[in-house]
Design brief:
heterodimer, A: mainly alpha, Formate dehydrogenase/DMSO reductase fold, 0% strand, globular, disordered C terminus, B: alpha+beta, Alpha-Beta Plaits, 3 domains, two-stranded parallel sheet, disordered N terminus
């Protein structure tokens, strides 16, 4: 118990220490958290009427961002899996970073869902026993289960690894018997949360753009592109500003995953577009609205083509060895573009245009309100605050700067 | 819920508050009720207004269908007390069960409908929907061009591409080829503002909850707040709904409406004869929709929209009774169901007189 307390103390005191840039970043996030607390208060007292959602376009920016957090959370297994499946030693040591990202992003996703709900105070209604869960019929019930289990698995995995490393007993022989099964379960669970999230959308036959079998594949490939993009950015920052050593091969593996996820994504998109546009039945209406607009309503058109250009451009750029190895210049830029293109694809291609035409033939544009935008930024600021702090502490433990036995700082070798 | 009390009885601006200060608010609203109550009897009733315990009890109440009879009575008493105080008129919340051996069905003659939207407004009045900013309407009337709605006659002999060595008719024959085909809602006008109806070049098609046999909304609800009763009507427990809107996503008829903000229902326009699953005032953040006027039809009356229809385009009845209006329509008219391809099996039938 005493060890656990000193772990918490050492971990957090290392996490909040940093240079001027580090504090500037935390302050930047704090600003959005401050403003966001007020806008969140407005939403929870006045209702979702403060967002841009209507009965026509009923899913708001929170839901779009939730889908994106599921992308990144699921993709974190791509950091964990190579270490455990292919025994890549360098990645196995970094696996815990991936698990931290998964943990924080799935928690962020759950927060977005709470913002999406009209009555977040009644969340307890879904807890079996206390309330009633419509299992196995409702896809949202499945999603609730898989998201919470994934959060729990990663929470257990991360705390166990970090604590063991902190006290210096993280060796193959000294690990608890349940640990490996938990890690493998978490690896399998990553894609699962994503497939289920895709089914939450694909199960709605009336939304022509979602009711397609390629949706889980589109989600998985977008996860494979957006998640590792964030990982590369984090790894590049970590090895530049901390003592953590991350070799080029690790970055290169992530870059390869991004490139070929984008490649497969292009195939998935073209398959979907072809299947819709060649016969051009009513199922193609939403896509045509997204691509070309409808009777002057063309708000989504530049977003559609912008995202397409960004994704194809990033894929082509990553085919060049020069870009892939430009660790301080082009690679982070490409990763940044991929991350944001897929983030913006969610509201502007996947969610909002899919609602037009409505079942009664209405076309509608979605305009995000300022309160809604600040609530989205609020959740993202919280996400990145926790991500920064936990990753910083984790790096401290991985480099041995944070450990229980203060005397043998440098001599001990982590396995 | 404390949020439900946001309607100020004196007609002043809505009081915005979180659930943490519901205590304070309950006190103010009972005081306000005391002031405006017209008769002494009402004043006494308003004074014994729901206290904090009742509000908490309402928050922790379970799904209505899973309650014991005693719990149901308590829940209803709580609501009646609260509504009576809030709207300063004696409000009843009924819990009448659907009669046995009944399957409710509706038939609507799109040949007769003149698009006057009296049904829409009668429904709003009967069912205590939010009145302004926004007015929530459960029935939406589509105004559609007459004839086959998926083509225009002038385009029939046009071709695309226009010139080819096989003649000028193209591969995709018809200038209509790029319009959505089938019984499409593409050209429907939902917000027409005509001074006089009917417009002779159009027909009208009112759409409301189709009370499906296989409702996608019931399947999608993660907490079973929406369900089907044994008379075949899809209902919502407003106190159980978590506002996730999965049902709205699933519905192929755009029949469900969400209370995005606090419903604005002036006390003088409130209909005090309510049903737990029907027209009792809703709170912010929950779903609502047509219930075939459960407060009326469970007691053997007709829905409000039917009574309001000036041309008799609407028929309601028991689908299990061969002599009912609906069954007679099914037996003798040309009947179709809206968006049958979704496999929802609506109990709302359209026919052409």
């Amino acid at each position: 118990m005493k060890t656990a307390l000193s772990f918490a103390r050492d971990f957090s005191s290392f996490a909040i220490k940093g240079g001027r840039m580090y504090y500037a970043w935390l302050l930047f996030l704090a600003f959005f958290i401050l403003v966001g607390s007020y806008t969140a208060y407005l939403q929870f007292t006045q209702g979702l009427i403060v967002t841009g959602a209507t009965d026509q376009v009923t899913m708001e920016a929170f839901f779009a961002n939730f889908v994106f957090t599921a992308h990144v959370a699921a993709a974190a297994v791509l950091v964990v899996a190579p270490g455990y499946f292919y025994h890549r030693k360098d990645l196995k040591e970094l696996a815990v970073m991936g698990e931290v990202i998964a943990m924080v992003f799935v928690a962020t996703g759950i927060t977005f869902v709470l913002f999406h709900m009209g009555r977040p105070d009644r969340t307890w209604h879904i807890i079996p026993g206390l309330g009633y869960m419509n299992f196995p019929n409702s896809m949202l019930a499945y999603d609730t289960i898989v998201l919470n289990v994934y959060l729990l698995l990663n929470l257990i995995g991360v705390s166990y690894i970090l604590f063991k490393k902190y006290v210096g007993t993280f060796h193959e022989k000294q690990l608890a018997l349940w640990f490996r099964p938990i890690v493998f379960l978490a690896i399998a669970w990553g894609p699962l949360i994503h497939i289920v999230t895709a089914f939450v959308l694909a199960s709605n036959a009336r939304v022509g753009m979602w009711a397609t079998a390629v949706l889980p594949f589109a989600f998985l490939t977008m996860a494979g592109a957006s998640g590792p993009s964030l990982v590369v950015l984090i790894f590049l920052l970590a090895r530049k500003y901390t003592k953590l050593e991350i070799g080029d091969p690790v970055i290169d593996l992530m870059t390869t995953i991004i490139a070929w996820s984008l490649g497969i994504l292009m195939l998935v998109f073209s398959a979907e577009f072809f299947t819709l546009l060649y016969p051009s039945t009513e199922h193609a209406d939403s896509l045509k609205y997204n691509m070309f607009g409808h009777n002057g309503l063309n708000m989504y058109v530049p977003w559609f083509w912008g995202v397409m250009v960004a994704l194809v451009g990033s894929f082509i750029a990553l085919l060049f060895r020069k870009v892939r190895h430009s660790y301080d210049r082009f690679l982070p830029l490409v990763c940044f573009v991929v991350f944001f293109a897929i983030l913006l694809e969610k509201p502007m291609m996947l969610i909002f245009p899919a609602f037009s035409p409505t079942p009664l033939g209405e076309y509608a544009e979605y305009h995000v309100t300022l309160i809604e935008l600040f609530n989205v930024l609020f959740v993202w600021a919280l996400c990145f605050l926790f991500l920064t702090l936990i990753l910083k502490g984790t790096i401290g433990i991985l480099t041995g700067e944070v450990r229980h036995d203060k005397s043998s700082t440098a001599s001990q070798n982590d396995a | 819920m404390s949020e439900e009390k946001n309607m100020d009885l004196n007609g002043a601006d809505e009081v915005v508050q979180g659930r943490r200060d519901f205590l304070k608010h309950v006190c103010t609203s009972s005081a306000a009720a005391l002031v405006v109550a017209t008769s002494p009897a009402e004043a006494v009733e308003a004074a014994s207004n729901p206290d904090a315990d009742a509000t908490v009890a309402e928050y922790f109440q379970g799904h209505f269908l899973l309650m014991s009879d005693e719990e149901k009575q308590k829940a209803i008493a709580r609501l009646e007390k609260r509504y009576t105080a809030q709207y300063s008129k004696k409000t009843t919340v009924s819990n009448t069960e659907a009669p046995d051996g009944v399957l409710f069905g509706y038939a609507l003659d799109i040949g007769k409908c003149i698009g006057c939207r009296r049904c829409v407004h009668a429904c709003v009045k009967e069912n205590n929907q939010s009145r302004n900013d926004p007015e929530v309407q459960w029935i939406q009337v589509m105004k559609m061009p007459k004839g086959n709605i998926s083509f225009t006659p002038e385009n029939l002999d046009k071709g695309y591409p226009e010139k080819s060595e096989f003649g000028d008719y193209g591969v995709q024959v018809g200038g209509n080829a790029y319009k959505t085909a089938g019984l499409s809602t593409e050209d429907a006008q939902n917000y027409y503002t005509d001074d006089t109806v009917p417009d002779k070049d159009f027909f009208y098609m009112p759409v409301q909850c189709q009370q499906c046999e296989k409702p996608p909304c019931v399947k999608a609800c993660p907490v079973r707040a929406t369900f089907r009763d044994h008379a075949g009507v899809v209902l919502i427990d407003y106190n159980w709904c978590i506002g996730c809107r999965m049902c709205q996503l699933a519905c192929p008829y755009h029949a469900r409406r969400f209370n995005w903000g606090e419903p604005q229902l002036p006390a003088e326009e409130m209909n005090p004869k309510t049903h737990y699953f029907g027209n009792r005032p809703r709170m912010r953040g929950v779903m609502e929709k047509c219930t075939f006027c459960v407060q009326r039809t469970r007691e053997g009356r007709n829905p409000a929209c039917l009574e309001a229809c000036p041309v008799g385009a609407r028929k309601f009845g028991n689908l299990l009774d061969p002599d009912s209006d609906v069954r007679r329509v099914l037996a003798t008219k040309r009947v179709f169901r809206f968006k049958e391809e979704y496999g929802t099996y609506p109990k709302f039938f359209y026919y052409i007189g």
